[in-house]
Amino acid sequence: MAFRWPVRIYWEDTDAGGVVFYANYLKFFERARTEWLRSLGLSQQALRELTGGMFVVTDARVRYLRPARLDDELIVTAQLAESARASLTIAQQALAPQEPGAAHGPLLCEGSIRIGWVDAATMRPARIPPAVLQRLSAS
Fold first, then answer.
1. Can 13 be counted among the known catalytic residues?
2. Measured between alpha carbons, how far is residue 135 from residues 39, 96, 97, 127 in Å?
3. CB of 104 closer than 8 Å to CB of 98
4. Are the beta carbons of 115 and 87 closer than 8 angstroms?
5. Which residues are paired to 80 by β-bridges?
6. Whether 68 contacts 94, CB under 8 Å
7. Which of 66, 113, 68 lies closest to 92, judged by CA?
8. Which helix (H) or strand (E) segment is 6 a member of?
């Protein structure tokens, strides 16, 4: 089951046409991933302090389907799609508000975000600590 995080659309999120600026979906996805990790007891700051490592985005693929507008409240999801020793692929979606009788609102945007684990001091790739992988795969 995907983690779900509500996001309200503000003026600062929109472009001159009054719709969400395309790059802002990456911000929404980042917030949902961060809150998903936090919900699993994996605060990114604490991970860095305890392990000396951190996640960095290494690849982002985004597909835009419908616009979101000022004052919309979206649901942004995050779900582990693939796990490797040094990286994770997270499937993400931005959904419009739920319509009556539907499980969720229309799909606005979807993405596949790959995050890699690096040594925070050197920024060199490293293996994700086993305890972190274990907690992620249990979600």
1. no
2. 11, 30, 30, 15
3. yes
4. yes
5. 90
6. yes
7. 113
8. strand 3-8
31 neighbors 113 (Cβ within 8 angstroms): no
The one-digit pLDDT tens for each residue of the chain (139 residues) are 899 999 999 999 999 999 999 999 999 999 999 999 999 999 999 999 999 999 999 999 999 999 999 999 999 999 999 999 999 999 999 999 777 777 678 999 999 999 999 999 999 999 999 999 999 888 7
* Residue the block writes with tokens 């046409």: 17
Query: Of the candidates 62, 82, 53, which has an alpha carbon nearest to the alpha carbon of residue 21?
Result: 62
Distance (Å, whole) CA 36 – CA 100: 26
Question: Quick one: DSSP state of residue 102?
Answer: S
**Active-site choice (13, 15, 59, 72):** 15
Label residues 88-116 b or e (16+ Cβ within 10 Å = b).
bbbebbbbbeeeeeeeebeebbbbbbbbb
* Beta-carbon contacts of residue 57 (< 8 Å; ≥ 6 apart): 30, 113, 114, 115
Q: How many CB atoms lie within 10 A of CB 41?
A: 8
Dihedral of alpha carbons 132, 135, 137, 139, sign:
negative
